[in-house]
């Protein structure tokens, strides 16, 4: 298992966000922020040490999680796993996501995505990525 990661969760459904927080905690990770818009996700990345973002596509107030994925990767070097019932893996990867999980997904699928996300196990938690963001990792849905 990876050392615990600092994870940002961008999810507008409070029940799903609470479930994800519990799963991530059970897997030994820390949820540093839970937000419900792309703008809040981008802002949270400047306030918290974030190793990875877990991002839904359709967020509150009409914001698009793929916008957050692009900015988190491009501006902050933060990789994202996109979780959505309303998007395609290709769209998530085009935005810069390192993995895609179609909702609903199983805990084992999330754990596999966390393990397969490039470079995460090669650096201490909370330090951020050095260099360029690695390419997407396709996952079976």
The H-and-E topology, N to C, reads as EHEHEHEHEH
For the termini, the CA-CA separation is: 21 Å
- Compute the number of helices: 5
What is the number of strand segments?
Answer: 5
The radius of gyration is 13 Å
Strand content: 15-25%
Low-confidence stretches: 120-141
Average pLDDT taken over every residue: 83
Oligomer: single chain
User: Helix share of residues?
Assistant: 25-40%
Q: Mind explaining what this structure looks like?
A:
This protein has 141 residues and is an alpha/beta fold. The protein is 37% helix and 18% strand. It contains 5 helices and 5 strands; from the N terminus they run βαβαβαβαβα. The chain has helices at 14-26, 38-47, 65-76, 89-95, 107-116, and strands at residues 6-10, 30-35, 52-56, 80-84, 99-102. Strands 2-1-3-4-5 form a 5-stranded parallel sheet, with helices on both faces. α2 (38-47) packs parallel to α3. The chain is globular. Residues 120-141 have low confidence and may be disordered.
What order do the helices and strands come in, and which of them pair?
Blueprint: E1 6-10, H1 14-26, E2 30-35, H2 38-47, E3 52-56, H3 65-76, E4 80-84, H4 89-95, E5 99-102, H5 107-116
Parallel strand pairs: 1-2, 1-3, 3-4, 4-5
């Amino acid at each position: 298992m990876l050392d615990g990661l600092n994870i940002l969760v961008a999810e507008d459904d409070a029940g799903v966000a609470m479930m994800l927080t519990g799963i991530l905690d059970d897997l030994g990770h820390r949820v540093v922020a839970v937000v419900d818009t792309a703008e809040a996700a981008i802002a949270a990345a400047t306030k918290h040490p974030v190793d990875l973002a877990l991002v839904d596509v359709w967020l509150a107030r009409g914001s698009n999680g793929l916008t957050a994925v692009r900015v988190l990767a491009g501006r902050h070097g933060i990789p994202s796993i996109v979780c959505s019932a309303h998007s395609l893996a290709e769209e998530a990867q085009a935005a810069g996501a390192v993995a895609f999980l179609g909702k609903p997904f199983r805990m084992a699928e999330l754990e596999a995505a966390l393990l397969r996300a490039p470079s995460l196990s090669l650096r201490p938690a909370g330090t951020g990525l050095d260099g360029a963001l690695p390419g997407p990792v396709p996952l079976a849905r």
